[in-house]
Structures
1.
Amino acid sequence: MLGRQEDAEDAVQTAFLKLYRGIAQFQFGAKFSTYLFRIMMNVCFDALQKRRGNQPQSLGEIEIPQASSVELRLQLEEAIDALPERMRACFVLFAVEEMKQEQIAEILDLRIGTVKAQIFHAKARLRALLSEETLEVAG
Amino acid sequence: MNCGRYQEFELGDMHEDEFNAHLSTCALCQKLMAQDGKILSLAKNLPLPPAAPLLWAKIENALRAGQRRHRPIWLSQFQEQKQMLWRIAAVLLLAAGLGSYWLIKPPPSSPRLLEGAALEKVESKEREYVAAISELERTALPEMAKLDTDLMLLYRDRLETIEAQIARCKEALAENPSNAHIRRYLLAALQDKKETLRELLQLAG
């Protein structure tokens, strides 16, 4: 989600601190993993917001060369990093964390329809970034 | 080639059965679906970032630091100087206990020590008892022989016990004549002896 190991570690640390301080607000009827992911994602969004401006990234700036096998994964990671934050969050939770769309909606406080649209558009963008030839190699 | 059915299905606007029926006839939707399947498969198999062995230690440190930051100043100071404060508390507790004892306990002089007129009054009473006892002894003791042996022995033991009690009181009073407690015991013993002698006299008579 953040694309950098050190940023991810900082985010995990911040999320745990927030979890520790706000555990009293946790409603025990809710799913704990959802609560934790929600905190985690908010921390990620905050981190990305702070980072924004320092490292502008857009889809147009990402160059995806023809590649095979291992390199393809790196390209996919870069392509995922290039997705808009909310879209990336939906895609990562859906494709990488393999969460259900309903749970993603709960975590990100979005409507289910929005989550579906975000995932669909994320896939469309990734399709566009990773050319047909590249995807053929992956297949 | 343009077909929006795949998007409709993905956004939940088309039923799965309907889409599957369409899929068998639409090459574009098949292609898009296959590509998305590959993307999802690749994403699912993305390598996990390397484990960060010090991450949890960092989190623990941060949590502890956070606790220290959010702790009131007085509590932090208390934690730092806990040993010293416990000692001070113990000394204060001891001082408070002793202070309370001295405040609560009755003054040693007034009730226990008889002085002046009170002492004279008590001594006068004792003299009265002693005089009465002497008079009774003169008349009662010779009559004791008239009692049966068991009763006589019983009264003799009782009188000896009372006299030993009187003797101990007099010894103590020789050292501390103003001690009200001993005076009270002495008066009680004298009264007991007087009553015993009177009882004896009645039994013998």
Note: Residues 56-66 of chain A have pLDDT under 50 and may be disordered.
2.
Amino acid sequence: MARGLGDVLHYFDPALGPAAEPSSPTQAESRPEPGPVQLLAVPMEAADLLRGAIVWNLALELGRAGAAVEAVIPPDAGVPEEDATLGVRVSGAHAADWVRATGQARTRLADRTTLDAPGLLLAGLAAEATPAGAEHADRALLCCATEPVALERAEAQGRRWLEAGHDRLGVVIHGAGSVREARRAFERLAGPLERVAGQPIASFGLLVDDLALYRSLVERRPVGLTRPQSPAGRALADVARLLLAPEDST
Amino acid sequence: MSELRWTPPPPPDRLRSALRAALSRRGRPLRVLAEGIEGLSGSVDWVTADPAGRVVAVLLTLEEDRALELVARGLAERDALAARLAEWRQLAPELGLRTDAGVDVLLLAPEFSPAARAAAAALGDAVELARVRFAAVGAAPAQALLESLAEQPGEPAVATPRPRLSIFRSGLRDADLSPESRSA
């Protein structure tokens, strides 16, 4: 059977491989206290291949950065289920199954986390599942392009979350041509949402070159592994860094 | 009734207090943390912070033909100051400075040549330009007025006011978004 990079990484660094079963009670007892798992829900549309590509690439980039990560993505987003490149497990879940799937992923992740290395669960979420997401997610992460139509759509998504009683929103701008363009897009989106939420909208940077992200998904070759020094790769690494930053720096 | 009139720049001591007041009156008010600190290329006129704790370095020239040089100085000082942010936050945590958002630069000059504007625009978000003028009513002391050039001609006006609390974050610069760049 063919093996992926994730299957052999632990030969080089055991920390990168799957968690080993404890071989003795002493070893199990010595495991550090589990850390928290943060569930980031990414609102998606039907057959949302681009956001599927973003979530998939981001999850793998976070894994590349050493984080304990899983991703749960709607099956129509074109993302391959796998277990697991860079230790990142990707599973599919329809809207109706979202709460169960993310709950299972959270449980699995909790076993791999410590207080020093909390886990991250990225979960694409269809609009109809927003109430469930608002109840269970720690933050909604809006992935928004810079065009006015995209900003309006993202603002509507954000308002739905706020109306559902969830006031912790974050934004990643994608498809930007410059940092200035991304900043302006963020400010146009964050301004009205901030006034409704009554608190800051967290910024998690920008992604560029949507085509490279989409192509990486089609070719099943994540940007962070194949072209980490490309603009898309550098931007992914920066967003991953911001997602892993301590809460007080947001 | 006395009329508002343009005035020449006031004497140096009054100039600085007028500009400090103008910085605090901006739409994004700036709180002065330090004045006249030593920089790479001379003095950084003011180190300030916006309400969200983002650090903004302010550089001033009253000579129009030095505006382009001011852009270059601003860029150099931005990087130098950014390297000191973590230390400042450690020394004065009560200031609430953000260390993850880098340093913004605000450049003040009576006018910016097309070359200076083009240079600033090419730097993306690194630099904001603002014209500085002075006006007085009757015998009252001159006030400084700052006119931001952030919106370039031909760009659509921003319909939504800037958020007051939410801060855009990125560790990237426009050079990182260029395929030609090989820097990590």
Note: Chain B has one domain: 8-150.
3.
Amino acid sequence: MRKHWSEIIIVALILISIRAGQRTTCDAQVKQQNLHLEFEQLVQTGQNSKAIETGRVLFERIVSKYPDNNSLHELQERFKVAQYLVEFISRNLKYRQKKSIENAISLEIKLELPSIRTNEEERGYLLEPPEQLYWTHFKSFSHELSIQGVSTVDAKFLRGYYCLRMQSWVREVATVVRKVIITNPEFSDLSYYSFVLPLLYIDEQENDWKELEYLFAFVDSDYLDAISDFCLLRVDRPGASCEITKYQAKSRGKSFSSIDWALTASAKCAENHRLGLAEKILNTAIDAIGDKEKVVELRLKIAEYYGKCGDSITAAKRCKQIAGDFPDSLLYGKVMSSYFAYLARQLKAKQILTEIDSVLESPSCQWYLSQLMYLKWWALRKTNQQILAKKIGEQLIEDHERNPHIAPILLAHATDALSNQQYEKCRLLLVRLTKNFPETNSARQAQKILVRLDRK
Amino acid sequence: MSIFNAPIWINWKVVRITLTILFGYSCLVSEASTSFSNEIISKNALVITGTEFYRRSRFDVGEIRIFLKNSGEEPISVCRPEFSRLIDIKDGQSHKYGMEVDYLYSKLSPPVLMPDRNGELLVKLLETTPDNSKFKCNVYGEIGRLSETIISIKEAPVWISYAGFSEDLDKIYVYGQNNTKTSLKIKLIEVAGISVGDNYQSVNNCLQPGDKGCLVFKMPNQRTLGEYIHIVVSAKSKEREFQTRRIIRAVNKFPLSSGGGSFSPRLGLDSEHAFVQIMSCPAHAHGTHKEAAGKFIDDCYQRFSQDPYFLSKMWICRSDKPRAWYTFGSLPDSAVINPVLLVSQAYQSNDKTCDQFCPFFWLATNAKKALEPNRFFACIPVNPENNVFSHSNHTPDEIKFLVYCAISAGAKGILYRDTPSFSRLSQDKFVRLNRELRLLKPLLMMAEPVNWASTADDNYVARSLLCGDEAILVIVFDCRYFSEQQNRMLRTPAFGKALRVVKTQVKVPEGFSVTEVKSMYAPLSTSRWRMEKGRLDFEADMIDSVQVYKAILRFESSISGTKE
């Protein structure tokens, strides 16, 4: 009987504890709902710091609610990185600001001030370059943040809290940087640090800078170009670079052309040997335009960049592809003459001779005839077909008297005459060359030969 | 008939043999003495304390160093050596004199040898002499012949490749390189007239063939910038012991400026320069090579009379490189050389070892060797002309690559050619590079390249510099820079930016441990480096063309009976 009673008591206790647990869970859910509401209200009323406080409590609860959720771990990792960056940049820049003020104050006044203790850790170290900070932490932000495995309400909160938290940190860093630069304009190069966290936070595909556009206004207008270049060349973010240029144009009341920007930006990339990036930018611009001739022009630009950087093989390949894709383009002749020029740079004289005759006959190449003929002349000389070369050379000299392409031909004919001891003929050709094309390399060479001839 | 009363018949044959034996014996004694650097012949006030022959590379014809001491009471200046080649006679017992051998120049350091002071007469030969050739050398001063000695053309087993100083000029770092095919142990004997005994620190002093070690000595007094300091080092192998000497200048400067001489602190460059330019450039100006060298030496003597502490500088340009660098490299205290230009034939004919990861490094190594133990300043073109070994203007990443190529080869100063015409972004990067160099200056002043570092990734190369007993600098290069060649031009291919972690290994000298590994920005966390069995392993974060790391050394135990 006693045993029976004890069993009843145990069951009752279990039931009570389950009920209590249910009530606690209910209470927790209510509390969480309240926090959700409170957070939303605070965000809506613009009380961001309070919203962050509330959000932090809620975030911790959600994290403990879903201990094995990977997307939450990713989010935590991003917060960790962001917090580290804020602390790192703020600490270092505040130290610089202190030093700057210290240096600005005269020695007498300085003696009256308590001595500023230097941070031992910072002594002997440089501030990590902004691109290094970016790339070191890029992995944590490299793919789109997708919050999964949590309730819809929690997911909504997490997205909102993430944005709020990030934007708050971005503002914190930007304010510190701004203060340092105001104290000492020589520290303008610190402006880059304002953009490390935003560039990690804002995805290149979305490229939505609306909430952070104020950052552009924080930077001295002269320095915005440098920031734009930084985004483009140091951290491979052409979208951000484009946004800054767009903002600059807007603030100066000028119109903005994405094609012009693509041309300028790709040229900068090419100058910095970032050909892949240059090509990507121009291809994005090409995708957005319908004008066939403009497409050919931009694709030819890509080939030119490769050529300028010394990669004549890829440049020739690109030209060949353009010619194949747009055989009836108005720029066909230009494309083909560029193609042969890149082959010439590779010293592929035989290939030029094999392919050039059909191109010379093409009516769309007539505008580029002198250049194409010159390339043929060069290829013939290179393959020791002197008689044919001489014939084409003379024809070129006759037909294109004022075209600078004939300068090297004149020089070659002059040196041929010199080797045949036809000094007068040589002199006449050289004089003609120096007179008609004084700015060419051939003319400079001719001048030297003339000096030697005069000594004879 | 008493033997004493007997008529004296001179047996000329016996006399000749006796004299030949005596002369041969005297030559052998003097030769042996020179090899072991003891005093040989003392005529008048000048004592020859040793001689040495060294050929710096296959581009060098070689040079002879005669170590002297003024034991008289008057200062001695303007020494002129005169050489006659000795040809071995078949019986090996004696020598006969050959023709007088001409040389390009001879230089006395210091230019005036005060009483009781040591000096060094450097003689640059005009042509390579066969191994084991012997010379009789007479040294003439203003008043006539001062000394004579026999010199054997046999390379010295140890070569003093560099002697650096601490910032306050009270610590000297002497680096020796093993030139033999067996291991050697080096010891510091004397610095500035002080017998150091055991009161110095050895770093890797048991040298494997080709390896370098450092001997660190804290001097009782600070030295003066530009002071001539006499050092004596001994090298001991199983078979024998050898002593070498050197006269070096006390220098604690690492110039960082623009070649045009315009000082720009805004760009992070120095505002002053300690070296006085005497000549530019003997390879293609100032007459024949002999005349140019003579003019340089005369100018130095003249300036020395006004300021005995002045430090000379010479520009040696692209004409006949790298041979011209070896021809004139021994003359000045420092020379500015452009290691970015390339003689492609010379480079191509050279075996590409792992050391020669880049033509610019190869050139800088040659420039360094040509100047040893004096200083080579790298002239880095910022806005290159059309005829240099690159297509367009260098990007800041490429400039950084070129600068560290020179530094890892042992450059002791950087002079940018022209003022850079950069965009703001590039200028900021350039300034950051200069800040980095300024921070490294104290270590670079004492540093010497050692072949101790490597990476586990073929796309990256690590070079190391031993900084005395203080640190090992490890410079990791991204080999994709300047890796493509087209139409005899080097260029950097296009590639995207990303962080790459490169596993790097460095040999740590015996008796030392690594207490910390630092990048230029922060210490590496302990999880990213490990030191075990004399080897340091760490992870280098590569984003830029070059990344620099410092492994801080700590002396753990005495390995050679020496102590600090």
Note: DSSP finds 21 helices and no strands in chain A.
